[in-house]
Every structure is written in C-alpha cells, then in structure tokens.
User: Fold these one by one.
Assistant:
Number 1:
Amino acid sequence: MVIVQSWARGRMTRFTDSFRAFWLPALNGPGMLRLLLALLVWVSHASRLEVGGPAVMVFFMLSGYWVTGLYLRHNGSIASFMLDRFLRVWPLLAIVAILTVAARLWLDVPAAGHLASTLMLLGLATRNQDVLGVAWSLDFELQFYFALPFLMMLVAPTGVLVKWRALIVLLVATPVGLWLMYDQGIATVLALVPAFGAGLAIRLTGWTCSGRAALASVIAFASFGVICLLVPELRHILLKTPGVWSPADLRICMAWCLVLVPYIAWNVRQSPPPVDRLLGDLSFPFYLLHFPVLSIGTAVGLFAPDWAGKLAALLAAVTLTLLVYQFIDRPIEAWRIGRRSRLTPALAE
C-alpha cells in the first residue's frame, strides 16, 4: 500500500511539474489566445451565441500591440512596412477565397459575396460582399496597418506615447468613425480606434500587469456576459436575435472588451513554449477556412444541422487548416520573411 501511495505521489508530482513547466505556459500564451479567439468565432457561426464580435474585437486589440511592435522594429521605409503587412494578410486570403468560390461552383452551391470585391479587400466591410464571411475584419486590419505610420507620427513621434495627443485622437476619431459607419454606411478603422489603440498604448507604455489584475479583468468580462444572458433587454448582445441590432451595440462591444485590457497586457508578456507560436500561426488559416467549410458542407448535406454535424464540420475545418498551413501558408510566410530580411536584415519577426 505504501509503495502504491508513493508511486501515485510521484506520478502526481511529475504531472504537476509538467503542467507548470509546459501546459500552463502554453494555455496562457498569446498564440493560444489567438487560436481560442478563432474558435470563438466558429462557435458564433455554429450557434446562437454572439461571441464572434467580442472575439474579433480582442483580435484588434492584439493587433494594436503586435503590429505596433513590428513597426517600431522596422528599419525600412513606411512603404516597405505597409507592403510587408499586406503580404501577410492578402495572399492566403486570396487563395482561400478563390478555392471557396471554386468549391461553390463545383458543388453547385449558390454564390455568396463577390470574389473581385473580396480580393480588393480595402473597403470590403463597407461593400459587404465577402465570399468568406469573415474577411470583412481583415479590411479593418489592413486599414490599421496603413494608418499606423501616420498615427505614430501624431501620438508617438519619438516612439514614446504622448498621452494628451493620444486622448485627442481617441476623442475625435472614434465619434467620426461611428458617424461614418452608421450614418453614412462607410466602415473605417476610425470607429475601432479604442480597440486598436488599447493594444498600441500597451506596447508604447510598456505596461506590465499582475496576474491578479488580469484574472480580475477576465472575471469582470465574464460577469457582464452572464448579466447579458440574464437581463432580457441586454440578451441580444450575446444571443443572436433576428431584427435586433443597434448602433449602440458596437460601442457596448468595444467597452465590454476594453475591460480585458489588463488581461491583454498580462498575456502578451508571457514566455510560452515554442508550440505557442504554432498555435498562433494556425489561427489565421482556421479563421479564414472555418465558415466556408461549415456553410458549404451544410448546404450539400455533408454535415447535419445538429451539433454532431457541426462538430464534424469543426474537425473538417481543423484538418483542412493543418493542410493549408503546411502546404500554402508556411511557404508563403517563408517567402515573405525572406524577402523582408533581404530588404531590412535587422528586422526580426
């Protein structure tokens, strides 16, 4: 009996040490967070839960942090920075969009969106002709990439945040962006300055956050979600309700996600294992592929409309993601990074 207890304690100790040394850092890593956000977008497409909007908003916050860091380390021209960011997003988007349209034609599934409009990308969120169902968010990403150098000239001319300038940009750009979006029907990154700006501010200020503050922000975020489910007047924020969508919802979504700023500030400072980078890299092809797989597969009867069918669609999307990552995305990234290294050899990813 003593031998069994000693063996069990040894196994538990090894498991605990392994969890602390590998699995816990992996679960807390930035790459794992990006993959989790992509999975939440899948949940939003596969259910009544409206969790895709908050997930994309957090994506924007992370982009604000990481892309600002890339810009600060970039030692080339502004044009080369913009081209490098464009090449990260557009080639894989174009390939997946073309394959999606081809699959719809081959399987005789009604067309969705417009291929040329999707390939143009800039302005896609305004045109609302997305063949993938998710590429509209990349329009905002691309707008941020192009706007960042000019934004930095305004709020951080020496690489250090000038807080009063940043506050003025926030107070001016956000109302203008919301007015353009809801009154003029023009979707611009100006409406999302609070989201992208939060990540930018974390990067420029070097803010570090304790684990307790990060956990408190997650609890506050989750608590508001529970309140939305319990209060009928707020339920449409978290549950899809046909015919219910108001201009205030974007502001509520941004305010809700800004509660997570301490968690974001904590998460991006983690030192996860190498597998975390892989998880983050997989999030992009999965994000592009999951909705075409789900919608086309369901339309042709490959996946039943119940949860078993949706889980089968998830498995198919994951399998296709691994193939696309290995044989398409990785070669494209190797080419992009090689090109960038030749032009700006001091720049590190």
Note: Residues 15-24 have pLDDT under 50 and may be disordered.
Number 2:
Amino acid sequence: MAHDEIRYIAMDMDGTILNKDYVLSPKVAWILGICRKQGKKIIISTGRVYSSAAKHVEAMGGADGFVCSNGADVYADGDTPIFEKHMDEALSRTIVDISRRYDSHFHAFIGENWYYEREKSYTDFYTRRTGLSGHHGDFDTFKTLKFTKCMFLDDHDRLEFIARELRKELEGKVQIMYSNPIMLEVVVNGVNKAAGLSACVGYWGGSLGQTIAFGDANNDEEMLLAAGVGVAMGNADDDLKAKIGNVAPSVDDDGVAVFLQNFFQL
C-alpha cells in the first residue's frame, strides 16, 4: 500500500501508547501531533470507556475519534456518539448469574460507570488502572441491566477456565477476548475493535484499508488484521506478532512514534 493512502491512525492504549504506569510518552504525543497537522485523523481504539480514554490523551490534544469498550461505543469528531451496541437485559442477567459461580473479581459497565458485587484483590488494581472508581452493589436491585461490557479479573489459568465455560454456555451470544492476561472481557456478539473502527472511519467516508492500526493484545487482533496496515507492538506476545507481520518497537521504546516516523518519513 502507498503510504500516502493512509488517512487514519488507530491505536490501542494500554501496552501500545500507555506504558506500565499508564503514561503517554512525550515523543508519541509529538509525532501524533505532526501526523494530525498533515491531515491524518487520530483514533483511539481501546477497551476503556470514553471518560477514561479521553483523559489519558489530553497530553496530545485529544483525538479525532474513539472506539471504546472494544467497539461497543464509538465516537467521532472528538466526543460525538455515532454507534453503540450493548447487551440486552436477559444476557446481562445471565452473565451476572454465571459470575456468581466463581471467586474471581467481576464487574460490568453501564454507561461510563462500573459496578461490582464483591471486593477482590483485583478490584483496587482496576481502579488504579482506569482512574475510575467502581460502585459496590447488588445487581439484583437494578431495575434494568444493559451492560456495555463486563470483565473478569484473575490469574490467567483461572480466567481460561471461565472463558471456556462462557463460550460453552453463551455460544453465539457474546464475544470473549483478553485485553491483558489477567483481564477477560465480554461484549455482545458482533462487537470488536475492527467493527468499531470501520464505523468510525466510515463516518468520515473512509475505510479500514486507509488505516494503520497499532495494538499489543488479543482484543486488538481483529483490528490489526482488518486494517490496511496492522502493526503489533514489540511487547505483544509472539503469536500476535507472527500473525500480523509488521512489528514496532515496544511501548517502552516509543514504538508507535518510531514506526510512524519511519513509515511516513517524518
């Protein structure tokens, strides 16, 4: 693909442009600023909800679009909602029932807020990671439940067992993915970053073929494969890097900035 055909730059956040301390490097912010001045649109594609994602990219002057909650909510022109696909009542309550069988941390998002029934060791970890405080309560007291997404947090081996059970019981109803080895995310079937990104660039009349996308985790795979140019981070696992082919340096080495500098000869 000719480099001048790329009009959109899409990026995951954690492990892609945010380091282990959830900080965006000045070099990444600077290079993305140059790209925007050249007419490229910057799109954040993340498992985070909008409020969490937006505050982390303030240092680079925000972004043109956001694909949030792994594609369940999409925004263009900064904060204009253009697409959403959430779970219905029945599916939401079924997942709550399943979550009560396990001792792992479980929470669910409704809008920008997340709710949990039991305090676990990973509850505080998620608060620190997102910068958003959760709400403790009983899901049975909610008059309606229509989750944007929900998550299990635990050691990876325990999550693998839960993932197998979810796939068996909810086949065809949900999409299950990892955003981190200790974070298992569940969204309604049909939601993923590739579909969300397609809706986002389509809002401006663009296509995935005109997009370069960066990511490091399982929930990025579909987006990276669908983009005109998909790039796995150096800190991604070997399986993802092998599937994608293009590999940037790690997030700790400003991989997105380095790759874009070389790609666009900035």
Note: The chain has two domains: 3-84+191-264, 89-188.
Number 3:
Amino acid sequence: MKAAVVHGANDIRLEEAPLPVPEDGDIVVRVRASGICATDVKTLLGQGLPKNLPTILGHEVAGEVSALGKGVQGIAAGDRVTVYPIAVCGECDYCLHGRHNLCRREFGLAHGIDGGFAEYVRIPRQIIDAEGVIKIPAELPFELAALAEPLSCGLAALRVNRVQPGDTVVVVGAGPMGMIHLLLSKWRGARVIIIEKTPGRREFAAGLGADTVIDPQALDPREEVMKLTAGEGAEAVITSLSDPRVIEASLPLVKKGGVFNIFGGPPAGSLISIDARRVHYQELTITGSFASTPQDFREAVRLISSQEIDAGRLITDRFTLDSILDAIERARSLKMIKGIVVVGG
C-alpha cells in the first residue's frame, strides 16, 4: 500500500508499506480521509518524534472497514466508520473514572502504532473494546467524519472550562483548534474574543463568527479584553498555541473565579510565572486539556452528523497522499486552517 512514512525530523517519504493484517479482535480500515493535526507538523519538526522510527502519522481517520480479525462482533466489512485514535486499557484507575485520555497503558494511532496517512490502517482491539469505532451514515462525507477527533478535543476542553451561555471566552491563537474552540463556544452561547497575529487567520475567525478579533501586534490584548468586559476579564481563557511566553502573558485576561486553560501543548520543560496571590484570592482555576475520551468522541460524531456544528467550514485545503509534502508545508507556514488528506476515490 501507499503510505507517508516518517523517518525523522523534516523527513517524510511517500513509500510502499506492507498492507496491515488484523490480529484477533482487530480490524483494518481502508482510509478515505485523514486530518492533518498541528501535532503531526510539530512531530515532523522534531518536537516529540516517536521512539520507534520509521512510522506513519495521522490520527484523525475515517474510512471503510476492509478486514476483520477473529472474534470481532458488531462490525462488518464495508461499514463506514470514524475512529477514536487512543487505545486504552479500560481497567486502570483513570479509565474506570472515565478519564481514558490519561490511561496508564494507552497507545494509539501515530503514537505507538502506525496511523492514517496511508491507504489502510490497523485498528487495535483496545479501541474497538472502548467503543471507539463509530459507524457513520451514508450521507456523511468521510472528510467531515475525520473531524470528529479534533472536535472531541474541543468538547473535552469545553467541559473543563465550564463555559455557559452568556460567558465571554477568549481564545488565544486562531489555528484549527482555536477555530474549533470558537465554533463550540458559540454553540454553547458564549461571546468569543479571538487573539491572533496572522492577518489571514484573523479574517477567517471573523468569518466564522468571532465577536471580536484582536491583533496583538497592534493592540494590547489585556487592555482590549478589559474594555470589552467592563474591566472584569473573561470567564474562560483558552491558549490554543504552544508558546509559553504567550501563555504566561494571557493569564491576566481571566476573570475572578474564571478558568485559564492551557490547551496547546507546550514544549518539554516549558515554565511560566504566575501571580500566586491572585490565583488564591480570586479563586482562579488553571488547568490543561489533553485529547478526549470515547464519550467526547461519540458526542463529536453526533454533532457533526446532526449538523449542529458545521464542521465543514473549518476545511480550507484538501490533499492526496501524493501531495502530503505540500500539505505539511502549508500547515507549517500557517497558510491553511484545516487540511484533509483524501485517500482513494
């Protein structure tokens, strides 16, 4: 099969790879669409390269079931599916408390096993056992189904951030996940302020429904947010980027009693300074959001299928496996919001 194989930092090659074979309890999915995540780009730049190389990236996958391992029930060849990418044990304390994304024995697509930048991908039994293979209706395009994984991460953050109708939410960074936070916060009934330095992304955010878009290179974000909130700050501030300097500078934007969410994954060893007195006396919640749970994923599929969330508005670029290098370069240069690799016809 054809696959985009990572050999190291800045080294991805289109190659022939062995066709995956399902073990007992596994399935194989013919990939029809695979989303390009910021994590994929960071990995290619050398930030958190997998230990075992070469490997295949891509964890936002939708396609058709092509093969079944022994013992698989409730799934048939030809089923149209989208896939929760984390293989969880279902038995550790985190899994038993519904926090599968923190599973002690987790692995997953592009994280321990090959991912979906290929014509076929093996889905291990642990994902199936967690009810992470979701059948999708015939009318739902594969490229929209592939957006369930990033949308589920936004839903997990929405829950942690306790966003309510009428709240003000500040999203720092208008990349693909920042735009998902925008869509979900508006869906929840919040007012959304976007802070973004790239002109094209500011324009995209405005078109997607942001109430206010701030250029941090032209205006002081804190002054502007305070003007817009009568000097109070925002109920929730989400840093949807990884620069620790920007994360630290964004903390003063949060309202007394509010939530400050570090969503974008900072590099290892990132440190920020906080005003501990303010955290104490204003009862601020400082938290992080990482990935999602199978329940979040199923809700994301529902929201996309029902069109409660118009996720297709996020897709700005489409590629094939043959043009995967162009896709990675456009993502790295911030020339696209959300790219999808379309595989097959």
Note: Residues 153-288 form a domain with the Rossmann fold fold (CATH 3.40.50.720).
Number 4:
Amino acid sequence: MNKRKQNYSKKRGLPLKLVFIISISILIGDAFIEELLFLFFPTIPDKYVPFIDALLLITLLLPVLYFYLYRPIITQLEETKRAEEVLRTLALFDELTGLYNRRGFMSLSDQFLRLSNRTKRGLILVFADVDNMKQINDTFGHAEGDRALICTARVLQNTFRGSDVIGRVGGG
C-alpha cells in the first residue's frame, strides 16, 4: 500500500473495506437472525432479547474477525510453510544440478544401507567423477563448467531409475 493510501486510511478512521464488511454483515446478519428466530419462535419473550443481541453481535463480528485476524494469520502460516519448503529443498538438493547435495545424498544413502541390512538384500553404489573440471572452468569459463555438470546430471537421471539415489557430493 503506498503512503498516500496509508495516510488516507489513518485520517478516515476505519478503513472503507471494514465499514463495508460491517454494513453487509448487519444487513445479512439481522435479516438472517430475524428469519431464523421467527421460524422457530413466532413470538419472542423479552428474556431472549439479550441472547438475540449477542447472536447478532457475533454475526457482525465473524466477517471482521475472518478478514482482519484469521485470514492474515493463515496467509502468514502459508508463507512460512513455503519458506520452510524452500529451505528444506536448499538443505538437501544441489542448486545447480537439481541432484541431491552431499547432505541429502548421505542421508538417503544411510537409509538405503540400513534397509539393505535389514532385508538382507544387496546394495550397489556407483561413483562417478567428472574429470578435469578445473581445466574446463579455466579454459572455457565457469558457465561452461556448470553446463558440463548439468549435462552430466541429466545423463545420470536418464540412465538410472527414479527410485535410485543420485547425488552431487563434490563441488560447492
């Protein structure tokens, strides 16, 4: 919100949106409660008037609570969850290649090793090294070195199964 709109909202008191929500709530809430009450109680004793007023107040406050308390909290929680997902991804995956990084690879490999021991089934570990990366970077530049790593990652992903663990444990 720009400064002019912020100043306008402060000068005018209640934001226009809040006034609109309360007005609609009064119209809808009052009509709804009256119809509902007359449906069940054709004549309303005086002792129920405070209850009816409280019910109307709750009806008025629900949209306000939703728009100004509940919805911002939910939005903040969703943003926090998205940020956690990004951090989790950064913690386990190599940003350049999209393969597991050292932490992710070691964690999953350890899990597969324990599973292999428990089920008494074999496990195969394949290790590949891209030779002369320093020479590629020095001769052709880091962009070409990155491209060599990305192409190598794609070849490995296309060669192995989706259930296999492929990681980049070297590099930065």
Note: The mean pLDDT is 81.
